[in-house]
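cache lookup: miss for this entity combination. No prior model stored, computing from scratch. Input as submitted by user K.M.:
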Amino acid sequence: MNLQDLLQGKTTDAHKKVIKSDVRRAKLLAVAFRKNGSMVASSTNRIVRGSTKKWTIHAEEFLIKKLKKLRARERFGLLTVLVMRWTPSVGWKLAKPCKNCRRLLEEYGIETILFTTNEGYIT
Ligand SMILES: [Zn+2]
């Protein structure tokens, strides 16, 4: 998956990755790209089941966790995160990060945060 291809609307396997999310009502994927457009890591949102309750980890939260596990060399020059939301019947939908996730991304040092819109664009 390449950021330039996604921005130009070229066919990618992005939605196949999104639908792997086990959250039924909103399937989201957050992808981190290097400055040259190549992908570093990606993560869907997911349901975590504890002993007495279950909750959802947002795609962006899980992406940051993944990035923190990478060696510094692998995440060097990391600048852009794209958040995507897919609904089989509609296609791409609004995936604007919530306040908490936006803060997490900014604190990590992500310079550009992009997301899909209801019109099917990336903004
Ligand atoms: Zn969030």
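stored under new cache key. Helices lie at 3-7, 14-18, 59-69, 99-108.
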